[in-house]
User: What shape does this take?
Amino acid sequence: MSRDVSARPDLAVPLGRSLLLRLLAVAVLVSVCSIAATAWVVVRTTAVAIRQEQGKALADDTKTYDALVGYAAQHRNWDGVGPTVAELGRATGHRIVLREGNRTLADSAPLPGHPYVPPPRPTAVVDPLSVDPQLLPAAAGEGGIDPRVVGPYRLSDAESARLRETAQGVVECLRTTGAAAHVVVGAGGRPTVRTPDGQPVGTRCEAAALNGPMPSEQKALDALDGLVDSCLARRGLSGVNVLLDGSWQALPARSRTSAAPAPHKDVRDCVESGRVEQLRPYVAPAAQLYVSSPGGRTASTFLDLSARNKLRIAWGAALVLLVTVTVTALAGVRLVRPLRRLTLAAQRMEAGDSSARVEVTGRDEIARLSAAFNAMSLRREQLESARKAMVSDVAHELRTPLSNIRGWLEAVEDGLVPPDEKLVASVLEEAMLLHHVIDDLRDLAAADAGELRLTTEPLKVADILAQAAQGHRPRAEAAGVRLVVSADPELTVTADPVRLRQAVGNLLSNAVRHTPSGGSVLLKAAGDLPVPGRAGRAAAAAAAGVRIEVSDTGSGIAPEDLPHVFDRFWRAEKSRSRQTGGSGLGLSIVRKLIEAHGGTVEARSTPGAGSAFVLRLPRRPLPPW
Assistant: This one.
């Protein structure tokens, strides 16, 4: 009888070891550490975040400035700049205003009835001939002139096409030497050959031929030389030749005037002023750029460490801590409750109650654990029942022959029975029966342990059936039972001959034993369809199986008993009178042997008409799962 463990004092968990209390302590510790770390990070990174936000604003301003400088470099006035300013305002989320003197050229977010009042200082001055290097360092060319300003240096279509053809030839030449390059066309239509990293290719493959000025460019250079020479002459210096890339060369000796050579600084100043004077008619005039928030105020960051924000952080930390503890407590209670039920059930099982079960609720991991526990408990109960039944059956099966042997030997010892041949034969029969039971139990134990070894080889099924029938024919004839064999002589199977004969022999022995005198037992074999339940796995090996059937005209098996015929020690005769002999293990061994070959076995029976046992085997044995 099982003990009641529901009130055992050892089930009470000390408070210090309570799982729920541990979960709460861990949650509080983690929350406090997380909040402290978060607060420290917020304090330490506020300045960085402000700088990042300012950097983003600067990036937006740079984008706006670059777009407007590019527009001014390609237009002579600001007449059509309105759509560009509106698009920039939508992209950056700022209000963008462009003014020239006291006149507003464009406004991305005008306020009806409220003329724009500019702040004292503009965000930047948009002048493509004087680019701000802090806002646009990459676009600031020689002398602060934006490279997109072309002016009179723009090539004609014919000149540009001719240079592109030359540049393409340079690219093809470089490819023959194993170097990669591509053509880049500048704002004025002049192509250049660049390597994949954007560097010029130098003088290879006559690339220098692309650097010479075209007629239209030479005309513009001549005009620039005149402006530069006039500037130098006003300083009492000799003139220079300005090149296409902005550099210059001193005039040949025969062309020089009596003036002194020009110093580098003076030449640079004159070249820059000359280029500005030459390009000014081709670009829009300088304008003031104002960038602000949509309402007209300067945008500012919300990240600051004011007293209000500090109080907000403290309240947020307290709320996070409260929510964390509450959620952890609820989760801990839901976690601990089923664990306690599992503990009680496990202790009941330990106390001997094999029917201990737990309630399964939900579909989480603990629910799966509870279901697994119930399955384990059920399986343990079944195994315990099977163990008790098996011990009882084994004891009964071994007791009968041992009792007979002991009785005969005691009778001989007491002089009641003479030790003649009849006695020896009777004792030997009981010993053989005992040996047969032990062999059957050994085979079943080997099969259960997965140690049943098969030595397979190609076999003719007709030969196996003939050998099995030959071994049981004397007993069948003695019982008045006709034994018939029907098999295709060409039908083959790969199997262990000893084990296959043992399986067929067990079925024959069972059929002859349960068939009355005058009846018949039919043993036949034929080709079969794929083995049931193994479709999709080694389908080619199991596509054509072998079907072996042992049928009799005996008394048959009742429908309620048919599912148990392969159970160990099961007999239709519950009286254990052994009138039909056998240990009750034969059919269990048949099932194990056939399953070891990758096949199946099934039983059909009609009470009063007979029974049929069907073995299905693959032509080739399938490997284990």
About this structure: The two ends are 42 Å apart (CA to CA). The longest helix spans residues 19-74.
